[in-house]
Amino acid sequence: MPMYEHIVIFKFNAAITPERESELLAKLLAFKGRIPGIVDLSAGLNATEETDNIRGYSLGLRVTFESLEALRAYGPHPVHQDFVQGLGGVLDNVVVVDYPIQ
């Protein structure tokens, strides 16, 4: 049974403050140990020097799940849903990529 990688990049609107962005990052980093099935997790603010490619995306998340079932259980998990609710009013766009690790 393959593990799964879950990659998310967030683009916030003008309503976001640096403090709010830091708070959201802290919530993401707290997922590990609170949501079952997470093998590894990293998240951070975009520090790329490829400024032509930022397109307004400022926060990235990478989560490795032990299985597809763990990835599926993550979406409705209360800790994840609390984070999603916190995006209200500040999220402009999001990109998600999930794939099995070969």
Structure in a nutshell:
The protein contains 3 helices and 4 strands.
Question: What does this protein structure show overall?
Answer:
It comes from Paenibacillus artemisiicola. InterPro entries: Dabb, Dimeric_a/b-barrel, HS1/DABB1-like. This is Dabb family protein. Homodimer. With about 100 residues, this protein is of the alpha+beta class. The chain contains three helices and four strands; from the N terminus they run βαββααβ. The chain has a single domain, classed as Alpha-Beta Plaits. It is about 25% helix and about 35% strand. It starts with a strand and ends with a strand. The mean pLDDT is about 95.
Strand order of the largest sheet: 2-3-1-4
The total domain count is: 1
Over all CA atoms, what is the radius of gyration?
14 Å
- Low-confidence sequence ranges: none
State the separation between the terminal residues, measured CA to CA: 10 Å
Helical amount: 25-40%
Mean pLDDT: 96
Subunit structure: Homodimer.
Organism: Paenibacillus artemisiicola
InterPro entries: Dabb (IPR013097), Dimeric_a/b-barrel (IPR011008), HS1/DABB1-like (IPR044662)
Pfam families: Dabb
